[in-house]
Specification:
Elements lengths: L2 E5 L2 H14 L2 E5 L10 E2 L2 H5 L14 E8 L9 E4 L10 E4 L6 E6 L8 E5 L2 H7 L14 H17 L1 E5 L2 E4 H8 L15 E2 L9
Parallel strand pairs: 1-10
Antiparallel strand pairs: 1-8, 2-3, 2-4, 4-7, 5-6, 7-8, 9-10, 9-11
């Protein structure tokens, strides 16, 4: 599954999302809809960032937003998949929708004002999709997807992420907002500034929010 793990905050994600909307090569959806609501397609950076303002069950703001990217003309017409739920476990809800498809690109964004989880993007390879297709027949045949086109798109996205890196922790790129947290003593999980060494490529203005 070709992909990239990195650390970024909302300010970092904003720049990468702007790149995606400016290129207009993909449609951007939430991974799962709210209970008994349609699956949302996002048409602006601002609409995606608002997801971080929504509250989870315990009243805290979301610290992660999970997206699926449908590369235009790289597969069958995209249609959300209805998923059945157990009403007893889901507050009476009986269904929701999922963005599912062998060629969709995952894009998981994390944010925090304190310790920060990594963000990542990845997607299936044709070999992996073929291996798992008998287990998930509802997804159709992987042969309907143009994995070369999907891989080229994915590589462009990864290059944009790495282009914005100002440091690295192991193999993970660190973008400027995340480096700011690190330099103020917060963890980029599982790394800890008290115990781990970061490789800084260029300095940033740590007075940024």
């Amino acid at each position: 599954m070709p992909g990239c793990y990195y650390y970024g905050t909302i300010s970092d994600h904003t720049e990468v999302l702007r790149f995606l909307f400016e290129r207009d090569e993909c449609e951007i959806y939430e991974s799962y809809s709210e209970y008994e609501r349609p699956l949302r397609r996002f048409r602006s950076v601002e609409a995606i960032l608002l997801k971080f303002e929504e509250q989870e069950k315990h009243g805290k703001k979301n610290q992660a937003v999970s997206l699926r990217l449908y590369v235009k003309n790289a597969g069958p017409g995209f249609a959300p998949m209805r998923v059945s739920l157990d009403p007893e476990k889901c507050g009476g809800a009986s269904y929701r929708y999922a963005a599912s498809g062998w060629g969709l690109v995952q894009f998981h964004l994390s944010d925090s004002k304190t310790d920060l989880e990594s963000s990542h993007t990845n997607h299936n390879s044709l070999n992996r999709a073929n291996k798992w297709s008998p287990t998930y027949p509802d997804l159709g045949s992987p042969s309907e997807w143009d994995f070369r086109m999907i891989n080229r798109f994915s590589q462009r996205l990864i290059r944009q992420i790495k282009k914005r890196a100002v440091a690295s922790l192991g193999s993970r790129a660190v973008l400027s907002g995340a480096l700011n947290l690190w330099q103020h003593g917060y963890k980029l999980l599982p790394f800890d500034p008290q115990n781990d060494k970061i490789t800084v490529r260029r300095e940033i203005d740590c007075s940024r929010d």
